[in-house]
Each structure stands twice: as C-alpha cells, then as structure tokens.
Amino acid sequence: SITSRTVNLHPNSPVMDFHIFDIVNPLPQMKRTVMIENLRNLHRSIKVAPFYVCENLDDIMKTYDSIINLGYEGIIVRHSMGAYERKRSTLVMKFKPKQSDEYEIIGAEEEISINGVPKDSLGSLICLSGDGSTFNVGTGFTAEQRQNLWRSRDSLKGKQVKVKYQHLSSAKRVPRFPVFVEIIN
C-alpha cells in the first residue's frame, strides 16, 4: 500500500496528506499548538487539524454541535496547559455522540480465549437490525453477566437488547461500536 512501503515510493504517494493534530513534546498544549501552526505552510501535503479555544462548557458544546453538523465524528477536548502524555490522560477527552436503540437478539456466540479455547461464557450477542442486517454486541458486559447470559442463551432469542453506539454504519445501517446496556424483556 501507499503508506507501508519502505524502499521505494508508491506512484500515488504525492496525493497523500499528513494531518497533524498534536506533537510529541513536553510543552503545554497551547505552546504545542503554536508549534503545529508554524508547520502549516512547510509543505502542501501537511494539513493542520483545526483547533478552537473554548472558555467554558457552553463554548465546548457549541463547537461540538457545529463540528457534528459538518459531518465529523466528534471532537477532542484538551486542557490548554496539559503536557503531552503517551497514555490516556484526564487532560484529554473525546466527545462523540452516543445513541441508543433496542434490537432483537437472534443468537449468541461463546467467548474464546486468546489461545482459541472456549471460555463457557458469552462472547457476544447476535442482533438483528431493522432492515434485516445482523451485527454483534460484545462489549459492556461484566464477567458475571457473561456467565449468566451464556447459561441462559437459548432463552435470549427473540428478546430485545438495549445497545448504545456512536452512529449507524453507512453501508449496512448497523450500530458502530455497539455496547451492551440491558436486556429489555
């Protein structure tokens, strides 16, 4: 592919863009943002991700709404004085829309260990979307729920499950990143 070549350039490599949204540096976020801005005109393939300074939660929510209305997935909120961390940080927060709906359960799959050994617990629920497409819900369960649901898997068929998700996929119209909430009936 274009990005994985190490010896010679792919013929389409000139059409690639490099999008910069942060830089690995111990300086605070605002100083890193200034550094990134200075890269904007370095090369035509360098694109600097837009940033907005928000003073309060109301500003954040207005920015979030406008970005979502432009068709983007969400925003990243960063503390202006936060240093770059190479791990999850309380100074960086992802804002993405969450939706929830109910879907019919049509089956269940067993959880499998990383060594391929069945674990005698629920791996995922197989669900049916409104237009007949199937999808799996495999996150959001506690270990106890996984064991109980696996034991009662035959009685789950036909029941409704509440699922939260980011948005529906464009192709199959099924939830993207579905997370189990509860069995409805």
Describe the protein.
Residues 116-183 form the DNA ligase OB-like domain. Its cofactor is a divalent metal cation. It holds the Pfam family DNA_ligase_OB_2. This protein is an alpha+beta fold. The chain contains four helices and nine strands; from the N terminus they run E-H-E-H-E-E-E-E-E-H-H-E-E. It has a five-stranded antiparallel sheet with strand order 7-6-5-8-9. It has a two-stranded parallel sheet with strand order 1-2. It is elongated, with a radius of gyration of 22 Å. 10% of the residues are buried.
Low-confidence stretches: none
Structural class, from helix and strand content?
alpha+beta
The CATH homologous superfamily of the largest domain is called Nucleic acid-binding proteins
Enter the CATH topology name of the largest domain. OB fold (Dihydrolipoamide Acetyltransferase, E2P)
Q: Kindly estimate the percentage of residues that lie in beta strands according to DSSP.
A: 25-35%
In brief:
This protein folds into two domains: 13-95, no CATH class; 99-183, OB fold (Dihydrolipoamide Acetyltransferase, E2P). Helix content is 19%, strand content 29%. The chain contains four helices and nine strands.
